[in-house]
Specification:
Helix content: 40-55%
Shape: globular
Radius of gyration: 20 Å
Structural class: alpha/beta
Oligomer: single chain
Distance between the termini: 37 Å
Number of helices: 16
Strand content: 5-15%
Amino acid sequence: MNAFRFYAPTLFEFGEGAEKKTGDLVKQFGGSRVLLVYGGGSIKKNGAYQGVTDSLKQAGIEWLELSGIQPNPRSGKVYEGIEICRKENRDFILAVGGGSAIDTAKAIGMGVLYDGDFWDLFAGKAPIEKTLPVGTVLTISAAGSEGSDSIVITQENGGLKWGIPRTDVVRPKFSILNPAFTCTLPAFQTACGACDMMIHIIERYFTNTPDVDLTDRLSEALLKTIHDSALRAIKNPDDISARANLMWAGMLAHNNSVGIGRVQDWACHQIEHELSAFYDVAHGAGLAVVVPAWMEYVMNHDIMRFARFAVNVFGCEMDFAYPERTARKGIHRLRGFFRHLGLPSNFAELDKNIKLSDIPAIIEHRKQKPNAFPFGNFVKIDEKGMEEILRLCV
């Protein structure tokens, strides 16, 4: 295990009715003039909007609203939110929704206090030093942004889907997690969320760092829990126990509890971000296609780690004479699990507009990012490697 520093200051309020504490928590962290950030009508149907605004009223907190946040959140809403905060003297940002609303709120928070284009912070042209305080009320178990040190935004000028350099500065001050809000999610959205959180763990699990037994076992336990709970939630959307397990697992998958002390990979996310930028596909669905293909491409780098994954997560029998058979069986089980959840397994199922001839353009688009190639750490992915992985997705 490598040396590390771990700081995760977010306060979590978990359970049914937790949203009733929103106003008090905003006041606890210094807020009095809130910008409320959310997507569409779902938070009004599941009761989150009413619960949150009632709590703000009771606490005597005034708010303005920024709605219409889309999946694969766009820069336009970030610029709009920054302008509102500056003009209306907002001192706290509250996101209600999933990862898109939360990432937008985080980007607004750091952009308000930066004297320049917020995109400079994504491009590495300026350090991320401060932010307005941000709180979240989670309604979708998926991205883990409610506890993470990261943000991903799509810059509409050029279609660049990039993340910031990771920093604890952007972690939310508090996050309210009521699993009941997730019971009304469509099955496909639940499935995409389960995939996203599993891949957050997989990006950390496949490492070259030796002697990380503790975080390996934590990762395997989380993966098994997500697997089992996702199947239960898809079968019975009102299974509140399954929803609760998914909600907390999603946070643990991405707040870096299972990533400390080890070199992480993140190649799959880098590849999928290009697909999301090009085709605006659901992030979890894109990952369901990319990750098994990446696994096939890198498997021989460490057969025994893939065999361990197969045995400890999917219950495959270990073939000690031919461990590569066990490794391949684990990849097959993962792909089958995604398919069982209703997720795509190739480009044709993901988006019929994706063509083999698009691959060179996708790779060229990747080159616009600073330090575009190589990427990943388990196995370094160069241009040729990315092309081969994308071809395995066809």
